[in-house]
Structures are given as structure tokens and as C-alpha cells.
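Appendix B, example 12.
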Amino acid sequence: MSQSITERYFPALKQRNFRIFWTGQCISLVGTWMQNVGQDWLVLEITNSPLKLGLVNSIQYLPMLLFSLAAGPLIDRIPKRRLIIATQSALLLLALALALLTLGGHAQYWQVLVLAFLLGAVNTIDAPARQSYVIEIAGRDALMNAISLNSAAFNLARIAGPALAGLLIGAIGIAPCFFINAASFAAVIAALFSIDAPIPPTRGRAGSLADIGVSVREGLSYIAGRKGLAGALALLGVISAVVLNYNTVVPTFAKGVLGGGARDYGFLMTAMGVGSFTAALSLAVNSKKGPSARRRMIGAAGMSITFALCGLQKNPYLSCALLALCGFFTVSFTASTNAYLQLSSDDEHRGRVMSIHSLIFNGVTPFGALYAGALI
């Protein structure tokens, strides 16, 4: 019975390599969410300033704004498994550095800013490389299902990670969140070494700056020549700039409006994670229908409306309910957009398309986080 359910609803899990990679991601993402909550709360403890929290989130995504276009040609030319092992190792070391600084009680605001920038720089390569690697280990036919399962793992971690982080911070402090995240990256690295797929040949050297410039222009021309790709990326840019400011708005909303602490912030993020996980699971089960423009539009409208409504009230229970709905619509929009972009791109340009996706999805966040922090 379980096998038939897997074949019917989760065909991507039939692929051994994807199954191994996905399992490692499930473990690592819990640690990532714990670090997100811990870092936000650490900044508020050090500065008590929503604006400075917004600046940290801006700095963390600034490298994506600066370097995403250049990262695309690199991702298209270097074997992705080898590249991801390198980036995951770097992320492990950065989490460990923040853990040691926090444990000793010596963490300063400028140090968090520097580490946030370095984290963003590594993620500029890591995020699009992981996203474009999925089709290599899951196959084109199961891509929508694989993306939905990745989103389910991400949002299941969003449920467990913030709740666990809130409890740990309240009981023994912030540093354990960073130590656990550092350890969790080892799961992804081990999974990558266990994958038995042959490493594809390198498509060429990274080349000079001029070569990279030519490759970037080619990728932009490829997108511009396809109205569907350009339209999906444009909508994503608007949503990313004015709605996806959760890391800045939610912690300050929990502390400044609801009058809560780290535990309350954790529960708000967990509520959003419940909605997001529900959406991801629904997308996985219905993945055979593929990504649709209607689903993207409903998701974009729904997340905007529910997040706005959350700011018009002060009831913690209603806040959780609205954020759960917001999480549901957010994943419906983002996962469908991701799948559409990958399925609509050819193998030669997919890395560049997904690097531009990362540029738009995360690169405009610095501006959104800054204006949100300033308004708060």
C-alpha cells in the first residue's frame, strides 16, 4: 500500500539519488530555520532596533543582488554536486563561527553583519545550484513533484525549527541554535557523497570577466525572448520587494505589537510553517497537473491580502491563523513559479535562469527589509 501511494503521489521519491539528497535536506533545513530565528533574536537583544534587524536581513541578501548574474555561468559550467559540497561546507563553517561568538557572550552587531554578508555570498551560489540540481537527480517528469517535496521539507522545518529555537532560546540561550545548524550541514554533505550519479563533464572554464559578461547577456536574452519566463520573474520581483519581508516584520510584530518573547515569535513562524507545509504537500500530491498561471496569481493575491490583514489586528491567535494562510499562499506561489521556470528552461540555460530567479527572489529583499524596518 505504501509503495502504491509513493508511486501515485510522490514519484520523485522513487529515485534513489533524489531520496538521499532530500533526506539530507530535511535534516539541514531544521537547523537553518533555528539559525534564522536565533540570528533575528540575537540582533534584537544586542540592538533592540527593528531598523538594525532590517539592515542585517538586507546585508544577508545583498550579495545575491550584486553577484547572482555572475553566479549563473559558474553554475552552468561546474558540476553541481561538486559545487554544492563546497558551498555546504562553507555554510557549516560560518554557522560554527557565529555559534562560538555567541557562546562566549562576545557577539557584536558588526560581527553579525559580516557573517550575514558572507552567508549571503555563499547562498548566492548554493541556492540556484541546489535548485537546478534537482532535475538531474529526480528527472524532468518528476520535477514538479520533487520541487513540491523540497518545499514540504523546507516548510516542515519551518514548523519544527522556530518552535525548537524558541524553546531553546528561552531555556538555555541562543548559541545552541547555531551549533545545531552547523552540525546539520554535515547531513547534506554526507548525502551528496552518497549519490551515485556520474558527475557530468565540465562544460568549460569559468572564463574571464568578459566571458562571464557574454554568458550573462546570453542568459538575459534567453529570458527576454520568452514572455512566459519574463512575466513570471516580473511578478516574483514585485512580490519579493513588497511582501516577502517576514524575517523583519514578524519578530518585531511579535515583540512590539503583541508584547511577546522569543517563544511567541517561534510560534508565529511555526503557524506560517504549518500553512506552508500544507500547501507544499497539496502541490506534491497534485504535481501531475504541473505549475499553472492561475495558481501563481491566486497565491500572489492571497499572500498579500492575508499578510496585510495580520497587521490590522493584535490578537495572537488570529495572528497565527492569518500567518498560516499567508504561508499557504506563499508556497503555492513560490513553488509553482520555481517549477514553471525550470520546466520552461533548457539544460544549457537553466543555471542562469535560476540564478536570475535567486537574484529577483532574494536580491530585492535588501530593499524590502530596509523599508519595512524603517516603517516599523
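DSSP finds 15 helices and no strands in the chain. The chain has a mean pLDDT of 83.
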